[in-house]
Design a protein that fits this description.
Blueprint lengths: L4 E6 L7 H8 L4 H11 L3 E10 L9 H6 L5 E8 L1 H9 L5 H32 L3 E6 L11 H5 L10 E2 L5 E2 L3 E9 L20 H4 L2
Antiparallel strand pairs: 1-2, 2-3, 3-7, 4-7, 5-6
Helix pairs in contact: 2-5
Length: 210
């Protein structure tokens, strides 16, 4: 049976870059954002990963990402989510369009931060094996189709961390991230650079091009 390494992260412990977040929202919403940060503080993000021999993993990751995994000895398959705690919190703001919108943006930021924290757990595990680790990559980015989520989830336990796939291969709860990290002696970590990817329609492209 595959070991599923499971972790939890309180949102209050995740290091939100408030100035960077406010670049996305614009000025004038400081009071609302601080209110939401306090509301989010009790939410517990949950994540986990399994490590599998590269020879056992069959994923259609696209040419570019597959190239980064060519020298992988292990695939670390992961999922992380803000879970039902966020769903219940956002329901409070359905009657307030501004707070509802800001809470959605903030939840996306915290989900990414939780994924970063889980990535560091994977990195520590790789280092304990005297191996290196790659960036984390997710379906839906850089030519890795979301349709491959079904294959990705086949390597995880049923409903990992309470996350399920819809018929269209989207995750529920929606504030969830899944993906893979390469582990191996000759694996490299690349500084994120959107010039490595030709997806001009990517929502995150401007975030990384300076």
């Amino acid at each position: 049976m595959r070991n599923f390494f499971k972790y939890s992260f309180f949102v209050s412990d995740l290091k939100l870059n408030l100035k960077e977040f406010q670049l996305k929202t614009g000025t004038g919403f400081e009071e609302e954002i601080n209110h939401l940060i306090n509301s989010f503080s009790s939410i517990e993000a949950i994540g986990g990963f399994v490590n599998l021999p590269a020879s056992e993993v069959k994923l259609d990751m696209g040419k570019r990402i597959s190239g980064y995994f060519k020298k992988a000895e292990l695939f670390s398959i992961f999922v992380v989510t803000l879970g039902k705690g966020y769903v219940e919190l956002q329901d409070r703001y359905r009657g307030d369009p501004l707070l509802y919108f800001l809470s959605d943006l903030l939840a996306s930021e915290y989900t990414e931060l939780a994924a970063d924290s889980l990535h560091m757990k994977i990195a520590a595990h790789a280092e304990s094996l005297s191996m290196k680790y790659s960036n984390r990559y997710s379906p839906g980015y850089c030519e890795w189709s979301t349709k491959d989520q079904g294959a990705l989830f086949s390597y995880l336990p049923p409903n990992p961390c309470g996350v399920q796939l819809t018929d269209s291969f989207l995750m529920t709860p929606v504030k969830s991230i899944s993906g893979a990290v390469a582990i191996g002696s000759d694996v490299r970590f690349h500084k994120y650079d959107c010039y490595l990817c030709r997806d001009d329609k990517c929502l995150y492209r401007e975030k990384y091009i300076l």
